[in-house]
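Escalation from tier 1.

The customer reports that the assembly of two entities below gives different structure tokens on two consecutive runs. Tier 1 could not reproduce it. I'm attaching the input and our single run for tier 2 to review.
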Amino acid sequence: MTISKKIEDIISRASFIRKMFEEGAQMKAEYGPENVYDFSLGNPNLPPPEKFNEILRDTVDSCGLGDHCYMPNTGYPMVCGSVADYLAQEQKAPVTDKEVMMTCGASGALNVALKTILDPGDEVLTPAPCFVEYKFYADNHGGVLKTVPTKPDFQLDLDAMSAAINPNTKAVLINSPNNPTGQVYPEKDLLALGELLEKKGQEYNRTIYLISDEPYRKIVYDGVEVPSIFTSYKNSIIGTSYSKDISIPGERIGFIAVNPAATYKNDLISGMAVANRILGFVNAPALMQRVVACMQGLSVEISDYARKRDMLCEGLAGFGYDFIKPPGTFYLFPRSPIPDDIEFVNALKEQKILVVPGTGFDGPGHFRIAFCVDDEVIKNSMPGFKKAIEKYR
Amino acid sequence: MTISKKIEDIISRASFIRKMFEEGAQMKAEYGPENVYDFSLGNPNLPPPEKFNEILRDTVDSCGLGDHCYMPNTGYPMVCGSVADYLAQEQKAPVTDKEVMMTCGASGALNVALKTILDPGDEVLTPAPCFVEYKFYADNHGGVLKTVPTKPDFQLDLDAMSAAINPNTKAVLINSPNNPTGQVYPEKDLLALGELLEKKGQEYNRTIYLISDEPYRKIVYDGVEVPSIFTSYKNSIIGTSYSKDISIPGERIGFIAVNPAATYKNDLISGMAVANRILGFVNAPALMQRVVACMQGLSVEISDYARKRDMLCEGLAGFGYDFIKPPGTFYLFPRSPIPDDIEFVNALKEQKILVVPGTGFDGPGHFRIAFCVDDEVIKNSMPGFKKAIEKYR
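Tier 1 run:
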């Protein structure tokens, strides 16, 4: 008995992924990093928007006494106001600084939101495939994550969602554009989901929250628009970050926004300020709060990701891979040519290609390619992708 | 049923403090902020060391592609190495980068450490008076905080500690220099505590960790030295931050260090990397990691706090207040002239002086004065302190 059983368990279950990373590092050492095609991590490779460095410098230059000190746990009111102004337009809802709390990224936001609403045994439903960490986030605060199947194209299956909702359901957690599938939910489905949660909430006489994790909102292609969450359902909460759209994931800056129409809006905001404090975040990093306040609406050069997506999709389609061309994110989630995705991921590894098995995202029979990599990596990996699929013809 | 019962409960219990803050804000609006003497918050008022701005600018200027991206969850190895080099000297122990993890401040560090070690129902013991948030930190991760009395001078009472340790004890959490008392534990007491934990651990056949929360380590006076934790007890963990000694609490940067001699060192470090990730911190803010790597050993001008302490102590002693002159921190924790500290805090409020009742720190019959304020505030508050104590003569 040395560390917590839960943590011990997580470590031992993660041994496959750890092994993969270790082998990847070993391969890079052995063959040279340029000869290993690493698509395993969602670490954005595009530089932040040009204005970022200028704003960062200006912010540092203008730092006065107290500018690195504590501020309200919800963040600088001025920063929350700046986020709110932008959100009001994006969400077509009258968001003000009072509904926004700055957080340590989207992971911080989701943990704070779940800590605020979950009682022991409460369930959180999420469409699968899904981000692997959600189950830990729910469990951290005494909740239980249950996955709900999606349609073959990874769109919401509202019948399955309806069947999964029960008296213990406290929240539905969605992620659109989705990691790992790249899918984006259309407005009509979000409205239908909103109606479902409203109806089920009345049936069970409890508020069922819709939590929208949307760090990829700005990373969409071909004119796709990500619909407003706040106009889809009143008891909704957005948790997101600037990690992916501004390429600053290491700086841990994001926010929570509560729908101004939410029934218990004030309780939620007060509760989130408390949760942010006692979980140890206390507040989002001060300097980066002030920086992102000046970055509203900006993003990395999305056309660069679009080019990578097109290169990858064109190549893989030519070899016979089966996939949904992702309308958003920098992930592609092809079907594995054989049912056992872990075996196929190993076959790709023989070609020095590193990807993540779909099993890790509750999406067995698939694998995830994170194409936030240099164009050269995509180009040079093509022969390997071809050989791997040919092995199973 | 809208938000978690626990969070609802915390909000309603905090109503006294919230009321105090609201009244304080109202008083400042009514009488002018310069006529309200606010000693309620531990928000450092000294500027960061002069070198800080230069290092921050240099760090920003040298930022390359990828410098705001994800790094290992434990932090940049170079930064951990820089912290370890300094710690090795301070702690007189062979600390390396492998035993250090960068965190979002000390609150983040303590939450990560507790998440890593606590199983449901495990107890964490802490000497009282203590920082009010500890009980939430333990509870966040299924643990229970139990307070242990200290001696009248707020030094460790090892008999009381020995009596409190039981088969559920997983950790003892100490904070020296202490918030709210300002007390510093001498080496002989730490060695005796280490022996006690070793003995009790053998008796109950489990590892009992010593967690040292030490953000005030550098804020000490009159040549006082804060002893090494790592030479006091082998299964020890330091959780701390640069918030107070560099005056950057809003930037959320600190670290955990595990004793290189700890029995389960590798499990602890692997577990902490997982806990840091799944709690949503993911990693400490990237830019500030690189900044503090260059700030090792630096601190604000401690003599400024010493001057404030002396002014305050001299004044209050003259009026008949009873207190331990604090060897460290920027807190003074006088005895309330009447048993009911909340009543006395209200009497001070009539004099436009804002302090926190000791009851909030499990130290009833006392009150906390945070003297990290301008000298003028201390000077101008003196007549009010005099009048308040005279009311009860």
